[in-house]
Amino acid sequence: MTTPPSGPYDGSTPPGQPNQYPPGQPNQYPPGQPGGQLQPGGHIQPGYNPYGQGPSGQGNYRYALPGEPVGYTTRVGASLIDGFVQGIPAGIGLIVTIAMHTSDAAGTPLSLGFLGSGVIWFLNRVIQQGRTGQSLGKKITGTRIISIQTGELIGFGPNLGREICAYFFNYICFINLLWPLWDEKQQTWHDKIVNDIVVST
After folding, report:
1. pTM recorded for the entire structure
2. pLDDT for 38 beyond 80
3. 116 with 89: CB under 8 angstroms?
4. Most CB atoms closer than 10 Å: which of 14, 19, 68, 129?
């Protein structure tokens, strides 16, 4: 007959007693062990992760990301689409201004074109993206902006702040556009300020 150990429980399984857990902790994994929370009958609760780790390869998150973090080329593609659509009114205004260069009102079409581009930017990148997490470019490329803390949409206000920060960062310091190339979570500076992440849909 084996004599039980007299010292404190050190987390190891006593000889001859396989698959038991520390006293007072039924149906749970010991601290530091991977795995989900055991339910009655030995089933693991899907999606539960007490250690704040997302699925493999997704880094430290408090939840399982609804999609993979988006790569650099996909982000650039979405921005190029948005920029092209936004630039259409300004381009038209420029063409008309060149055609009217001898007129006193030659600058008016260009001013209206830039105004139209600003309206498209606001509707697409602020309102639409704030409401759905997707601008036109992100919708076409199958990407979405979500909060890195909750996995939910960031909303109108934070999205507006994000776009304003993006504008200044991109034009003041070009390196912001390249930052996702070496960032662990493929974020730009304006992503980090708002605490968002761009993921695939």
Report:
1. 0.66
2. no
3. yes
4. 129
